[in-house]
Amino acid sequence: MILSSRGRPPTGRPPEPAGADADAAVIARSRREPECFAALYDRHFAGIHRYLTARLGRDAADDLAAETFCVAFRKRAGFDAARGAVRPWPYGIATNLAAQHRRDEGRRYDLLARAAAGGPGGPDDVADRVADRVTAQDLRPRIAGAVAGLPDGDRDVLLLVAVAGLGYAEAAAALGIPGGTVGSRLNRARRKVRLALGGIDPARIVEEDPRG
Fold it and tell me: Considering the entire predicted model, what is its pTM?
């Protein structure tokens, strides 16, 4: 598959059917017809880009979202449809790529927390997305600080659920961990957020029972 500098696949190919089963079919077919993989890009690029933008900012997301699908394309022969749905797979790749930028991500959250302390109107980022679920604007810097202080694994789970919208099972598949581990990490993250918000129930930020 040939990607442009922004990662967009070539055009002019026949449309592919939508849906989870179709995703697996696209991967299987792309092993014989590589150009078909572009259909997976079309369906999932926007979500991956939003997730990486929330973690790392738009500039990094432009490159890493494209890199996510380059990595997926290179590894498509090893994808096992028996493991489950395709959707968590690129999110796992994106999370691994984001880990390489962990230091920058931590600095971003620190800057975000300081900027948010000045009031609303900051960039479109994780704090804004999370704070949209809470009514008080002055909670935003404390949310950002809480996210910045989470252990890496807990932060990954929280952002996959709260930002990417993955369910427990999907987050587990994306990270290659048991579903119970997702639950325990998310519970720890929510307790930390609760402390940062002075006891406000973080269930208003992260759904109690996400899809999956």
Answer: 0.64
